[in-house]
Specification:
Layout lengths: L4 H7 L2 H4 L9 H15 L1 H8 L5 H20 L1
Helix pairs in contact: 1-3, 3-4
Length: 76
Amino acid sequence: MALEERIVQDMSVPENFKKYLGKEKYYRDFLVFWQNEMEKKGWENVLNEYVFAGDERADDLLGRLYAGKWHISLWL
């Protein structure tokens, strides 16, 4: 999958972030997005901003993390 730099930039806009979630074709773009965020802000700040902030985006990601963990635990 080729990197789409404009998509990586678009992911930085909170209103646009969700439209890329759950779509495999954006895997590489998300990988670069998260790497860039952690390089700029540090992993602790990124985790707090994107998972524990209590806003709509963070609540969505937190739910996805728990859904993934629950789904995997069914197979163990």
